[in-house]
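Supplementary notes for students who missed Thursday's class. We covered one full example, reproduced here. Read the sequence, then the structure, then the short commentary at the end.
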Amino acid sequence: MSKCKNFIILGTLIMLFVSSNLFGLQFELDEFRRLRADFKAEMEPITDMDMNYCSVLKVEIDKPVDISIKQKVYRKERIDEDEYYFYVSSREDEITFSAAHYVPFTMDVKNELKIGTTYYVKLNTIKDVDVTINVVPKDASIMVNGLKWEKSQGRLIPGEYVIFLMKDGYEEIIDTVSVIEDNVVFHYKMVEETITHTPVVETQEVQIQDEENPFKTQFNDYIIQVTGVEYTQNTLVINFQITNLKPERELSIMKHSKAYDTAGNEYGPQTIEFANKTKNRNLTHTLVQNIPIKASLIFKNIDATVEGLTLLKIAFWDQVNNHFEVSFKNIAVTIR
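Structure (token representation):
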């Protein structure tokens, strides 16, 4: 797998939701509907704290599991080893089911529950399986959907995962794999890293910002414009926008972007915002042609007031151009 492709998939990996919920037993919703022929809620009415008649959930599971509900339950009845009645408020927007050794499962019921009405909920269980990831060299770091594995063996529920392997001196490996219901083993051999030169944009001379002379440059068919720099409460925020001049493509804003103030201090961003996403690492977004997209670099825990920037380097990566930087000089800072 090429280095370029690695970085693209890495951007996808970074945007994935990272959670320990990937490990362990899980529920999935098989069916949810109103039971018109079940009059449990009407025959045995119970009111909630607002004196509204409760809704009743008739919950069936595909195997015997002692299940509970996170929200307030006004009565719980076990019909069978795999079937329950739960009386809940009809005003709930969501219902969360939980059980020992299972990841909590939340069902959206906003505007669905009616007073004095019974609903049927069918839940299926998904069992995790053994997964082994063998890597040469053996001391390489293994991450699965953003979670680090301390050992080469682990357990996952069936589904699709991104495996990220890294070790100093070796090419990173990023692979998307499918885990099925049987135990599975993956084998990888890492290749020693080769040194390549990174193309860098020459620093562009930009004057103090005003409406007639904005901090704006065009490179690699992107227009990058700094729209404002603010310092407040030990935090420096650099706002800019990016316009893609080519057909739809992915662009990553890199964490190793830098800002230098008038006192000679160097700062690296703790947080990157790009469109509607926020990360504390490299951040990738798909840009539509000719549509400006807002972005920000956020620098935190700055002890001294930043009155101006002598140099700003914004680092990017895309599939065609690899790494490149756009630089701006002598930027005024608004202090609030």
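Commentary. The helical segments are 3-15, 40-43. Residues 26-126 form a domain with the Immunoglobulin-like fold (CATH 2.60.40). If anything here is unclear, bring it to office hours.
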